[in-house]
Automatic annotation (TrEMBL):
Membership in a protein family: Belongs to the EamA transporter family.
Membrane-topology annotation of the record: Multi-pass membrane protein
Transmembrane residue ranges: 7-32, 38-61, 73-99, 105-123, 130-147, 159-183, 190-209, 221-240, 252-271, 277-295
GO cellular component: membrane
Protein name from the UniProt record: DMT family transporter
Pfam families assigned to the protein according to its UniProt record, in alphabetical order: EamA
Domain EamA: 9-146, 160-294
Subcellular location: Membrane
Record's keyword terms, sorted: Membrane, Transmembrane, Transmembrane helix
């Protein structure tokens, strides 16, 4: 009875984490309504989350100290922090200036298929026939959803979608490349260090561009920046990790399917976005394809 209760608690924790993660795009789009550029919103997100990750990095500084880490390992950590959290976030925030929040989440949800493709091309790992079918389905779903949106909103949709795809590729590259580093540092230590690197990259980027007076923005933008940092970045990262520990990664793969759906619902409520029937059909194909890949992969591990 206790294990069943823990299982459902793990499901609830995972759903909450996924929904909070999914709310990021909606809150970014809300911030853009105040005529703020992407790097300024990203700066606020990193500024509010930076102290939290500094504290986590300090608390977990002794994690896995028995395992030898070289200066080369730290250089790779810096690289993956740059690619996986800075570039992925920046491309995502730029893409959101062009496309709907709901479509953004559908594209980002492709990252497990991109991981498979990167593993195939760089690590020579085989892709099974069911995985090939699922990958084909997911990209067919993207084409269906975006073909309809291009007809409605114009060429800006393709540009925005391209930036979001670059974000998904950057994050998938981080997942593929950092896998061998995480056991050396420990997941909490590695993640907090990588996030600190990402924050510093954003600070440098803003200092070089510096188009907006960050101290003279509407209070709503600061509030949204705080929400994005804490409730759409830091908190859900711990909720998801806890959920995976409680219910296993294969079960969480099913929970993750809530992501695009919750973004579509939140975008309808807060942004008054509407997807056409064809776009919803494309989104459904993407979700089913990715879930099939995730479950198939989990069953083999």
């Amino acid at each position: 009875m206790n294990s069943k209760k823990n299982f459902w608690l793990g499901i609830g924790t995972g759903v909450l984490g996924v929904v909070l993660f999914s709310s990021k795009a909606v809150m970014v789009k809300l911030a853009y309504k105040f005529d703020v550029d992407a790097i300024s919103v990203l700066l606020l997100r990193m500024s509010f989350s930076f102290p939290i990750y500094i504290i986590i990095a300090y608390l977990y500084r002794h994690q896995n100290t028995s395992i030898h880490t070289s200066s080369k390992d730290y250089l790779w950590l810096i690289f993956f922090g740059f690619v996986g959290y800075y570039l992925a976030s920046y491309f995502d925030f730029i893409g959101l200036t062009y496309i709907k929040a709901s479509l953004e989440r559908i594209i980002l949800f492709l990252y497990p298929t991109i991981v498979l493709l990167l593993n195939r091309f760089f690590l020579k790992q085989n892709i099974t026939t069911p995985q090939i079918i699922a990958i084909t389905l997911t990209y067919l779903g993207i084409v269906i959803a975006f073909w309809d949106e291009v007809n409605i909103s114009g060429e800006g949709t393709l540009l925005g979608g391209s930036f979001i795809l670059l974000s998904a590729i950057a994050y998938a590259s981080y997942l593929v490349g950092s896998g061998w580093l995480i056991p050396k540092f420990g997941i909490m230590k590695f993640t907090s260090y990588a996030m600190v690197v990402s924050c510093i990259c954003v600070f440098i980027h803003y200092a070089l561009v510096n188009k907006t007076d960050i101290l003279n923005l509407p209070w709503e933008v600061y509030f949204l920046g705080f929400l994005i940092a804490v409730f759409a970045t830091v908190v859900p990262s711990f909720l998801v990790s806890t959920s995976i520990k409680m219910i296993s990664s294969s079960n969480f793969a099913v929970v993750a399917g809530v992501g695009p759906i919750s973004t579509i619902i939140l975008a309808v409520i807060f942004l008054e976005e509407r997807l056409t029937i064809l776009q919803l059909f494309g989104a459904l194909i993407v979700v089913l394809g990715v879930l099939f890949i995730s479950l198939h992969k989990s069953s083999k591990t």
